[in-house]
Every structure is written in structure tokens, then in C-alpha cells.
Amino acid sequence: MNNTIQHIAADPTYQGKQEFTITVYTENRIGILNRISIIFSKRKINIESLNTSSTEIEGIHRFNILINESYEVVRKLARQIEKQVEVLKVYFNTNDQIIWQELALYKVPTTEITEKVTVERLLRQYGASAVVIRQDYTVFAVTGHKEETDALVKALEPYSLIEFVRSARVAIIKESAGFHEKLKEFEAVEPGEELVKNEFLDEGDKVFTM
């Protein structure tokens, strides 16, 4: 599978570090996450965010990896990842080339919400929705970009914010036609081998008898 890595630079002349989201499509095999992580650790590249999930294609998983590096470093890194046997395709994109979201959870004392109208207004302003309501605390969920979820953390700090946690980034490439279409293209160029029936399959007792 040649020329499978795609990148459209927002500013081709920019040589400094910027956020890149690396999207890796792989077969669902044990150990692939460890091997991909080793590629980053060997190059002393810090992973800012890592998400893995199933895709619309059965048996194919997708990694969204966020790093802050230069274009050239990311290009070489992506090509190294694509050398892994189980890796089917790698994309890397800048933030303006993807649509992404992060999920954040906030635990706030319930008394702060019921007794202070400003907190309730603040949560509505950020589009927060209640996930769990208990007598001692309430958990709210917000989806958005890191800047938005961080802003709500600062806004809630004066109101006894108990706990905050944010998920890894999930992202979809704007110009991607869907990996299932690419997979069809690969199959047309490099069709998989037809399954050959094992001639001894129905003779197990004969073959394996000592």
C-alpha cells in the first residue's frame, strides 16, 4: 500500500512545532498499541492524547494520537508507524483539517448549584448536562475543545469544584471519504488471497492420532 499517508499543510512554510492528530487504522490485534507506543518513546515524543476505538468496519480499529511536533518529524513518524504489519493506513492532519471534540466531566457540590444561581447560569452557558445528581455532589458533562473545557474549570474553581477529568481527543478528517471506501480501493489493487481449504481438516483423527 504505497502513498497512503495524507497531509495537506495549513502553512507549508511553517517549520515549528504545532498540534497534529495522527489517525491510524489497524487490524484488531493484541500488542499493536504497545508497538505503536514504543515508536513514540524511542524518539522521545510525548503523546498529548490517545484514543482508540472500533470503526464502521468490523475488525478494524482506529487510533487518534495527538502530538505537538514539526511537520517533518510527524511525517517520518507516520511512515514508521505504517511499517507495522497490522497497520492499514495512516493520516496526519493539523487542527484546521479535522473536526474534533473532547468530553469533560465536572464534579460540583450540589449545594453550590441549588443555592447559587450564578453556577446554574454558568453551566447553561457552557452547555453542560447533568450526568449524576446526588445529595452531596452533581456530575456534569461538557463536550468541546480543550480551551472551552479548561475555561469552565477556571470558572468553577470559586464554587468548590471537587473533581475534573477530560477524555482523549476524538477526531474525523474533514476531507476523508471514509476508510471503508479506501479499503475497497486497496482490495481492488491488492486483492486478498482466497481461502484454501485444508485437505486434512476433515481427517483430524487420522492425522493427529499417535
Q: What topology emerges from the helices and strands here?
A:
Blueprint: E1 18-27, H1 32-42, E2 49-54, E3 60-69, H2 71-81, E4 87-94, E5 98-109, H3 110-115, H4 117-125, E6 129-133, E7 137-144, H5 146-156, E8 163-166, E9 170-173, H6 179-189, H7 204-208
Antiparallel strand pairs: 1-3, 1-4, 2-3, 5-7, 5-8, 5-9, 6-7
Describe the structure.
- There is one protein chain.
- With 210 residues, the protein is an alpha+beta fold.
- Helix content is 30%, strand content 32%.
- It contains seven helices and nine strands.
- It has helices at residues 32-42, 71-81, 110-115, 117-125, 146-156, 179-189, 204-208; strands spanning 18-27, 49-54, 60-69, 87-94, 98-109, 129-133, 137-144, 163-166, 170-173.
- The strands form two sheets. Strands 5, 6, 7, 8 and 9 form a five-stranded antiparallel sheet that branches.
- Strand 6 (129-133) and strand 7 (137-144) form a beta hairpin.
- The longest helix is centred in the N-terminal third of the chain and has 11 residues, at 32-42.
- Mean pLDDT is 82; it is low at 191-210.
In short:
The chain has 210 residues and is α+β, with helices and mostly antiparallel strands.
